[in-house]
Design a protein that fits this description.
Elements lengths: L1 H21 L15 E6 L4 E6 L2 E3 L2 E4 L5 E3 L4 E7 L1 H21 L9 H15 L11 E8 L5 E6 L5 E4 L2 E5 L2 H11 L6 H16 L9 E7 L2 E7 L8
Antiparallel strand pairs: 1-2, 1-10, 2-11, 3-4, 5-6, 6-7, 7-8, 8-9, 11-12
Helix pairs in contact: 4-5
Length: about 240
């Protein structure tokens, strides 16, 4: 009898530990989720929408609502990141510096870097960070590299902290609300939408995901990429109906 009670107590302890580790309030304790943040990129007809929330937190605490997570890399390509905010800003500055240096060094520079080439560069930086003697740990970031190629076809690529790439023809997500965003996008995504419809759908999916996550939220910033360039739109989630 005593052995049975010990076994039950051990199982109860294991279940309790598992439930605590799965609790939303514990997700902010790791470096990748400490500052919160979520990203969504969705493809349309010769256009791409990138949505990033602006919440900057410290665990469950709200620090600000002006987090910088997106870098415009030319007229038809952006890099968006979420993760430890110090690493996000450091890596975005590093990418921007490399692109500026490339423009200065390339005497025959004919235009913006293709999104696929930019994705390869980001992947090399991330994987190289774990081998550099000046840095003992990789960047705690999850980047999205999105844009239009020279034929105005959408390119969507999500990467992990070591630069492993995952491309998609429809949408990619990242962040603390990634699971909820996947569900919303799978249910609502429609291919070949025009710019205005894509903008509305992307923000609706973002709201559906953020409503189910406590580490992301506040306002969202949308970068709409088209053959005409990049347009920035600031949106409040209250403007859109709940999903």
């Amino acid at each position: 009898v005593k052995g049975a009670w010990k076994m039950m107590a051990r199982r109860l302890l294991l279940v309790t530990a598992w439930l605590v580790s799965r609790a939303p309030e514990c997700r902010g304790s790791d470096a990748m989720s400490y500052n919160g943040g979520s990203l969504l990129a969705m493809a349309g007809a010769s256009c791409v929408a990138v949505v990033a929330d602006s919440r900057l937190g410290a665990g469950n605490a709200l620090v600000g609502d002006a987090a910088c997570r997106v870098l415009e890399c030319g007229s038809q390509c952006v890099v968006a990141m979420r993760g430890l905010q110090a690493d996000v800003e450091t890596l975005l500055e590093d990418i921007d510096a490399r692109l500026r240096l490339r423009r200065l060094q390339a005497a025959t520079f004919a235009g913006d870097l293709e999104p696929e080439a930019l994705s390869a560069m980001v992947s090399i930086i991330l994987y190289g960070s774990r081998l550099a003697s000046t840095q003992t740990t990789p960047y705690f970031v999850e980047p999205l590299v999105v844009g239009l190629d020279r034929h105005h076809r959408a390119f969507l690529c999500a990467q992990d902290a070591l630069g492993a790439e995952l491309t998609s023809a429809s949408y990619v997500v990242a962040g603390t609300a990634a699971h909820s965003l996947h569900g919303a996008c799978e249910a609502l995504y429609q291919p070949d939408l025009d710019r205005s419809d894509l903008l509305d759908l992307a923000v609706r999916c973002m709201r559906a995901g953020l409503n189910r996550d406590c580490l992301s939220g506040r306002k969202v910033v949308v970068h709409l990429i088209s053959p005409n360039g990049i347009e920035r739109h600031d949106r409040t989630l209250a403007e859109y109906p709940a999903s």
